[in-house]
Amino acid sequence: MDYYVGDRRCGCKGPMEPIAIWVRRGGEWAIIHRCQACGAVCSNRIAGDDNELSLLSLAVRPLAQPAFPLDRFGATHEKG
Fold first, then answer.
1. pLDDT tens digits, residue range 11-40?
2. Taking CA atoms, which of 52, 54, 57, 65 is between 20 and 30 Å from 28?
3. Who wins on pLDDT, 6 or 18?
């Protein structure tokens, strides 16, 4: 339970940033949060009043901002 929106009750009381979505067993979505102060990572179930567009934005973030350059796909590596 949050005391106020976004607090996620981190032990150090630092602000929590939503960084990803994951799907739990059974299909339930959860938001992954990282504390901006101590770096702790936790997950929380989505709530009925969570903004659907924001949830989808988090879910597609790895596709929109991949961790590696996409121009490497399709490149041929010549030996020799």
1. 787 888 899 999 999 999 999 999 988 999
2. 65
3. 18
What's this model's pTM, rounded to 2 decimal places?
Answer: 0.68
**At 7, which helix (H) or strand (E)?**
none
Q: b/e map of 6-44 (b: 16 or more CB within 10 Å)?
A: eebebeeebebebeebeeeeeeeeebebbbeeeeeeeeb
Q: In this predicted structure, what is the pLDDT of residue 9?
A: 64
Which residue type, as a one-letter code, is found at position 57? S
In contact, 18 and 31? CB cutoff 8 Å? yes
Partnered with residue 44 across adjacent β-strands are 31
Hunting for tokens 């010549």 — which residue is that? 78
What is the rounded CA–CA span in Å between residue 44 and residue 75?
Answer: 40
Give bridge partners of residue 35 from the DSSP assignment.
16
Under 8 Å between Cβ of 60 and 54 = no
